[in-house]
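#onboarding

Welcome to the new folks! Below is a worked example of what a typical request in this channel looks like: someone posts a single protein sequence, and someone else replies with the predicted structure as tokens. Don't worry about understanding the tokens yet, we'll cover that in week two.

Example request:
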Amino acid sequence: MKKILQSYFSTILFISLWYLFYTNNSYYNNYLFKDLTFLDFSINTIDVFNIIFLLYIILLIPFYILEKEESKALSVIKALLNKIKDSKYKIKKQEKTNILAWLVKLFFVPLMISWISKTFFIVLNKIYYWFNNTDLILDSAIYFINNYLFLTLLPVIILIDLLYFTIWYLLESKYLNNKIKSVEPTLFWWVIALICYPPFSNSINDILWWYSTNFPEFNNIIAHITINILFIIFFILYTSASVSLWFKASNLTNRGIVSKWLYKYVRHPAYICKNIWRTIWITPILIASIISFNIKTTILILISTIWWWLVYYYRAMTEEKHLEKDIEYRKYKEKVKYKFIPKIW
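Example response:
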């Protein structure tokens, strides 16, 4: 019972400090204090955050009773206390993994919760307007496709992806076979991963510019429909890669090797799909800049696109280098020989 209580209150301490930091940080306030509305109902993102925070605290009680293992938070606190008592104390491998695991959770979870909240309300509002504007299907099919169909499918797909990652960031258990085995230990590879997310990605896009749209539009109706169908297909494939990770979805960690669905054919399906649909995003403005002989804009678009392709390529290489320490991944690589494109690359 003593270990259960220590584990529980250690975790409560960590997430309470985490909560205070994020709710008092000016940057994250932009995410946490947003009004979300559906019809006459309104809620603030911070309210959603608070609800999840309280639920998590409550659910941790039965979780630690069932788990009967020392929590990562308790392990980290013990390591820090030992270091304070003895400056020569060497942090053990598992203690270092636990510290890094907490850093991963603390970075990603607040972003995920805020994105889920926003996306969920976007989906609700889109579906509501669908049912109240069904006459548009007959009056103007293309208007309906542009303003409702595509722009509803996209947030639905995003919501599914976000839900999978958020749940499994928060929930780690021996019963789910998704305990964190290791966390990427090198600073450089952490940088490569984190620059793909705010606030770092925002700063990079400000420097390089990011010419994109969530809904590529073309004057030619056939090209318009075809390109956007491709866009949705690659987005679905990207999310299906997240879904196939199931309990093991996470960044910068090894929680066990997955070899089903798209991972049966290539080792990094999510990254190749993401780069393809990001490229589709910029296609309209790239075509426009080429037609108008806007050389500067064309070059900037190409530089930005190449940059993100390289970033995600190196993210894949980072993961491989980390996961190759696991014999199961080395066996997986022998079976699945292609990184991104079956039979080609």
